[in-house]
Amino acid sequence: MLAPVTSILPTPRADAQGIPDIYLYVNDLANPRVLLANERNALTSLCYDIDDISTAEVAILIINTTLPLGIDMFASETFQKNGIGKAGLDNSLLIVVSVDERQWRIEVGYGLEGILNDAKVGRIGDNNLTPALLTGDYYAGLYDTTYELGTEIVNNYVPPNPNQPPPKPWILDWKAIGIAVALFVFISAITRGKAILFLPNLFKRGGFGGGRSGGGGAKRGY
Q1: What are residue 16's phi and psi, to 5 degrees?
Q2: Any idea which architecture 26-163+207-221 has in CATH?
Q3: Is the alpha carbon torsion for 57, 62, 63, 69 positive or negative?
Q4: If you ran DSSP here, which 8-state letter would residue 128 be given?
């Protein structure tokens, strides 16, 4: 008699974390979330201002665990998969905080390594992020760290194309629009033109520009 399939297949690891899709600019994927809505909005506004002024993209990611990869490989692969930074410029940062592992990492794109070397990034994180995380104040630590990193970028980075269009954190979701139109046509046909259309959210968060990680940055526990 054959054993049940569920008894011979390996049980998936409950703590394993795949490489996530992330968007402009703040991604609180922890469960439960650690940021309030107004805190996410304030961080998003700060990252937008850095992007608008300098063209550099800052991504913030809060996650429960980076296992089984570990925070170094996890940050690098998340950076590459999501293309953080403008294509061809690689002017970007990724700030990862792992709640369960009590670790953070700041990954720096190729285009910003001359401004934000490993020692400077580590010092900024040590002065701002680590002490705040030790007290559980994720928002203050992330805001102060992003502000100081952003100040370094705005004051020292000269974008090759400063006249590019402003960033678009929200873009039209054409798939949602297509579904809404199709539903409207279908319901109109069966109700003889008496359909009432309740529109879904027709916007989605914008993605990053297609940059690459430089492999530099800093990592710490807290």
Answers
A1: -70, 135
A2: Roll (3.10)
A3: positive
A4: I
Q: Specify the amino acid at residue 3.
A: A
What are the extents of the domains in the chain? 26-163+207-221, 170-205
Phi/psi-derived region of residue 215, left when phi > 0, alpha when psi is between -120 and 50, beta in every other case: left
Name residues whose C-beta falls within 8 Å of residue 99's C-beta, 6 or more positions apart in sequence. Answer: 30, 34, 62, 63, 64, 65
C-beta neighbour count of 144 within 10 angstroms: 17
What is the SS3 assignment for 179? helix
28: left (phi over 0), alpha (psi -120 to 50) or beta: beta
Structure tokens at 77: 């692969």
Q: With contact defined as beta carbons under 8 Å apart, do 139 and 46 qualify?
A: no
Segment 17-55, tens digit of pLDDT: 699 999 999 999 999 999 999 999 999 999 999 999 999
Global pTM value = 0.80
Any residues with CB less than 8 A from the CB of 39 and at least 6 apart, and which? 139, 143
Q: Please state the length of the chain.
A: 222
Measuring CA to CA, which residue among 104, 95, 22 is closest to residue 58?
95
* Alpha helix ranges (H) inside the chain: 5-8, 37-54, 71-82, 118-124, 130-134, 138-156, 174-191
Distance of CA 186 to the CA centre of its chain: 37
